[in-house]
Amino acid sequence: MTSKKRRQRGSRTHGGGTHKNRRGAGHRGGRGAAGRAKHEFHNYGPLGKYGFKRPEDAQTEVLEVKVQKLDEDAALYAAEGLAEEDGDAYVIDARDVVDDGYDADVVKVLGGGQVRRELRVTADAFTAGAVELIEEAGGEATLSERAEEAAAESENTSDDETDEA
Predict the structure, then answer these.
(1) Where residue 163 falls among pLDDT bands split at 50, 70, 90?
(2) Minimal CA–CA distance to 112: which of 96, 91, 134?
(3) How far apart are CA 66 and CA 108, in angstroms?
(4) Nearest Cα to 96, choosing from 110, 72, 73, 77?
(5) Is 4 exposed, middle or buried (0-12, 13-18, 19+ CB in 10 A)?
(6) How many CB atoms lie within 10 A of CB 18?
(7) pTM listed for this prediction
(8) What is the 3-state secondary structure (H, E, C) of the chain?
(9) Among 3, 58, 74, 153, whose Cα sits 20 to 30 Å from the Cα of 52?
């Protein structure tokens, strides 16, 4: 098979249309991102700024763990020393179980699935479904000290705001 260059020999414009087309960037509509707001708008995303970005110190990092995973892996956690056995129950701190749990602002236990073992779970937050599943299996869901302190602080700030109003 011959090369394209070889095949184009003898043709005046080498497949470029009329001889005027390859003179500059005009045939392609400009150079670079020229025309992105006019004739090339369909090839680019929207112009301008939208929304805002919250400052990092105002954001809270929430790590999540499912209550079903705690139930399934309770024996493994006890063998690794991340949980304790207390009779038939397993005592689990969610911060110990989650990767980087102590670096996060909040560790939350989510519901869903089944709980077959009696679990005593300590975490910063629970969904209503998680508390229901844990208590149905005979266990208990306890808020951590960090969560109680945060709740006390929010009560104090809300009391101050109502006093000022």
Answers:
(1) low
(2) 134
(3) 9
(4) 77
(5) exposed
(6) 9
(7) 0.63
(8) CCCHHHHCCCCCCCCCCCCCCCCCHHHHCCCCCCCCCCCCHHHCCCCCCCCCCCCHHHCCCEEEEEHHHHHHCHHHHHHHCCEEEECCEEEEEHHHHCCCCCCCCEEEEECCCCCCCEEEEEECEECHHHHHHHHHCCCEEEECHHHHHHHHHHHHHHHHHHHHC
(9) 153
Could you tell me which of 113, 110, 114, 67 has the C-alpha nearest to residue 92? 67
- Taking the CA atoms of the chain, what radius of gyration do you get in angstroms? 32
Q: Model confidence over 92-114: pLDDT tens digits?
A: 999 999 998 888 889 999 998 89
Length of the chain as a residue count = 165
The answer to whether the beta carbons of residues 105 and 57 sit under 8 Å apart is no
pLDDT digits (tens, 9 = 90+) for 28-55: 899 999 999 999 999 999 888 888 999 9
Tokens (6 digits) for 146? 């960090």
Here the tokens at position 94 are 């969610």
Tokens of 121: 């779970």
In the numeric block, the tokens 């043709």 are attached to: 11
